[in-house]
Design goal:
By secondary structure, the protein is α/β, with parallel strands linked by helices. It contains 16 helices and 17 strands. The strands form 3 sheets. Strands 12-11-14-15-16-13-17 form a 7-stranded mixed beta sheet. The protein has a 5-stranded antiparallel beta sheet with strand order 1-9-5-4-3, with helices on both faces. A 5-stranded antiparallel beta sheet has the order 6-8-2-10-7. The radius of gyration is 28 Å and the shape is elongated. InterPro entries: ATPase_AAA_core (IPR003959), P-loop_NTPase (IPR027417). This is ATPase AAA-type core domain-containing protein.
Length: about 425
């Protein structure tokens, strides 16, 4: 790397140059009582010039800069001695630091904090217990004007690439049941999983479907069904968790698989009556019937009474108990009947999740950082197989906690509910 050479002099033509010592001393006597590292004062004292400044933020939205990676970069690429930095800490962890690279550039990093709800696409090692990472929302670079091109075109770009993603979450209602007292709803937060590229994870055709699903579910008067089906491991549940966080303005009710069969009970329908404008989410919807997926689909459409056109074509008979004309998102771990595949109506959005072809599998593995030779991939892969490959390569300790963080894309969404519910509530919920 061609980093700037040490400064030998300061051109007097620079607007920020301070030649008169009395002016410099006056500036240095200003109030320093705010308890932050006085980066501008120290730059003035060291270089006798007022600094140019640029603010660096992560190169991706919802990201936070990873502080240890920035410090390692300065040590390795700039031969910077970090032991000479001004550092403030709380307990063992840095809250602020100021690094003088000695060449007319200072890095000012303030208000660092540990976070643990992150996605980690750059595969950094945790900086604290329970997978905490030391992060900051922005870094300021103070510099002399002759370094303007280098700072803004190279250094800023490099620093902004050191990030983790702060996970967002959406509140949903999970249907639970007391063994003796009946059903109730429990609120939990569902973290948004990291999907680097929807088209890479699910195929280029799915991007259009995804935007169509979002558009329809955002409409206050759309009462259709989103049917997601395909073999296990193809990422249906992973996508549902992602979709949930795209619908933050909606009320969402999720049904664990062992409660799905209770959908037609009058007791249950009375519980969800106040939530008539909610979106119903069912994973493992084949549990609507213990016999066959065809029968499960029949049961689902019998519960759903807002689309007469569907019933007239498929000759399904309407049930007295229905879901109050609510939108439904249902995932089946199987391929659906051919009759449905040919059905085209504005009230049903359907998509078949399948293995990614060899080319897409190779590209996604490489994007996720796999060291596997692409030539060794000889057949299509499910997302489950792809993420399992990445998990094996990371060689993490398989403690119980790390196992939960390394769940494959098609893990059951109620596992997330179990993690969020308190122990006392879990004892009262029939979550499998």
């Amino acid at each position: 790397m061609n980093s700037p050479q040490p400064v030998s002099f300061m051109p007097t033509s620079y607007t920020g140059y301070i030649e008169d010592p009395s002016i410099l001393h006056s500036l240095l006597r200003t109030d320093l009582s705010n308890q932050q590292i006085p980066a501008t004062h120290l730059f003035l004292s060291h270089y006798h010039a007022y600094p140019c400044t640029v603010v660096i933020q992560p190169s991706i939205s919802s990201g936070r800069l990873h502080v240890p990676s920035i410090r390692r970069y300065l040590e390795m690429d700039h031969k910077h001695n970090s032991s000479q930095d001004i550092v403030k800490r709380e307990y063992r962890h840095i809250t602020d630091f100021l690094a003088n690279l000695g060449n007319g550039i200072m890095l000012d990093c303030q208000n660092c904090r540990l976070i643990n709800a992150v996605d980690n696409p750059n595969k950094y090692k945790p900086d604290g217990d329970h997978n905490h990472f030391l992060t900051v929302d922005k870094v300021r670079i103070h510099y002399l004007p002759q370094h303007d091109n280098y700072v803004n075109e190279e250094l800023a770009s490099k620093l902004s690439s050191f990030y983790v993603l702060q996970s967002t979450s959406t509140a949903i209602q999970v249907v639970c049941k007391y063994p003796t007292q009946g059903y109730y709803l429990r609120g939990i937060s569902v973290k948004k999983p990291f999907i680097c590229d929807i088209s890479l994870n699910y195929g280029k055709d799915f991007t259009v479907i995804h935007h169509h699903i979002i558009k329809q579910l955002a409409k206050p008067d759309w009462k259709g069904i989103v049917l997601l089906y395909g073999i296990p491991g193809t990422g249906k549940t992973y996508y549902i968790r992602y979709l949930i966080n795209e619908l933050q303005e909606k009320n969402l009710i999720y049904f664990p698989s062992d409660i799905i069969r209770a959908l037609s009970s009058s007791e249950f329908l009375q519980i969800i009556k106040p939530y008539s404008r909610s979106i119903i989410i069912m994973d493992d919807a084949e549990n609507l019937s213990g016999d066959h997926p065809d029968q499960a689909l029949t049961n689902l459409l019998n519960l759903y009474s807002s689309t007469y056109f569907v019933y007239s074509i498929l000759s399904f008979r309407s049930s007295r108990n229905h879901l109050s004309h609510q939108p439904i998102i249902a995932a089946f771990n199987t391929y659906l009947p051919q009759a449905l595949l040919h059905l085209r109506t504005s009230s049903i959005i359907q998509y078949c999740f399948d293995r990614l072809d060899i080319n897409h599998s190779q590209i996604l593995l490489k994007k996720l950082g796999s060291q596997r030779e692409t030539e060794t991939i000889k057949q299509p892969m499910t997302l489950d197989e792809i993420y399992a490959q990445i998990t094996r390569e990371t060689k993490f300790e398989h403690t119980r906690d790390s196992k939960k963080q390394l769940n494959t894309p098609d893990e059951m969404i109620q596992l997330l509910a179990e993690q969020e519910l308190s122990l006392s509530d879990k004892d009262n919920c029939t979550l499998s």
